[in-house]
Specification:
Blueprint (H helix, E strand, L loop, with lengths): L3 E3 L15 E4 L8 H10 L4 E5 L13 E7 L1 E6 L5 E6 L3 E4 L5 E6 L4 E5 L15 H8 L19
Length: about 160
Amino acid sequence: MTPELLVFADDGTIPNNPRLPALLFRAALPPGDPAAAEALFACHGWPPAWRNGIYRYHHYHPDAHEALAIACGRVSVLLGGEWGQVLDLEAGDVVVLPAGTGHRNLGASADLLVVGAYPTGQSPTEHRGRPGEHARAIAAIPAVPDPPAEPVTGAPWPL
């Protein structure tokens, strides 16, 4: 399974990642099975951290990479900031966001369930593009260690 690589530039508010692309895996998991996503992530060193949805405001994590598995439902997500890319995701899809990558829920089905995970040892803080955050994020993002593997196939990351 080969992911689609998505690259986003710093827009002055959302830094995105200057080095690593986001990874999009379509139909990577059986739809409707959050436990399958959790097991897959865990076996590749990304312990599942939560089950929920995706925030409706733009946010990013300057100190952790994040994997989002769409376990149930559908969601339209804007990645990379206000001038980024809209992705329509459905159950079974996985997107892997390197530290700093902005993401926002633009609308979802009522049954949306997302499984989120971070590489072992990484714990995210949330930034929303408030004044002063960008400069701190630019300094923090390069310090986030690369995980030994991406969470879907277990291939080395960066690819």
